[in-house]
Design brief:
Number of helices: 10
Number of strands: 3
Structural class: mainly alpha
Strand order of the largest sheet: 1-3-2
Radius of gyration: 20 Å
Distance between the termini: 39 Å
Oligomer: single chain
Order of helices and strands: HEEEHHHHHHHHH
Shape: globular
Strand content: 5-15%
Length: 292
Amino acid sequence: MAELTDEAIRCHNLRDVACTLVKRPAFNATTFALDDANSLIGLNFALEPLLKNFNRQLLHFHNTEHAAGPQRMARAWSAFLPMVLYFWANGAANALFRNCVFFDESAVITAQALTISQLDFVLMHELGHVSLDHPRQIKALKMSGEDVTTIRHEFEFAADAFALELMGGRAFSPLKYQGDPRRPDADDTLSKQGLLECDAVRLLFRYMQFVDEAGRHLKQRLGHDIELKDRLDSHPRARDRLNRFEQMALHDTPHNPDILRYATSFFDNVLAYVKGLSDSDLSETLNRVVIN
């Protein structure tokens, strides 16, 4: 909120918004309508370290691709499986974080920058729900007995669009960026920063998509042996949100840096490895993660 301009806060009616941490396994936070005037945003208490771990692990595998060995996909699955179980089986938060080796300082800085931008997007998304009055509309529809599935999905897309608008740079204070707004290249700096933040959000959706697809596969294969949720959440599928976000953000000028291309193929390869495991081997990997 400190990075938003007073004009943006006033224009979008965001002055009276409270936030609290909640122990609720969900990628994005939840916004509650307290009464006719006030809203409360509940943030997953593990959100920041969770996203940082995703970014650090992905960068680790990206930076060590040249040294890939036969156990690479097994190690990748072991690294990301605790995060899948956290969402699908209420896994322990303290089992999420695995050490990974970085060979240069820039990877650590990149992971931190990606995490900050992803957290910004999650928060701006929830502020979109507040500004657009979604919680109270959903509450009213539920009280009238209507099915809110379709409208809830549309609200999620609308909140993504709202967050994208706020993250575009125009609504942010110049303090948000590493540069002097009085410089002649200030507009170019904001434009580049906006692209980098869009890339971070696209990675966030890739993570959500991987967790969704991996959890669904575990449910199909081992749902009779381990208690898993019937579905990840009530949001639209991460793949659909990513497609809609790219349509809104990129238009005719796609920005597809190496890390995004790598993330797509990397997670596809991890899922292919998992699908190739026998039921007994897949179950063994779950037991190993739970025990450790």
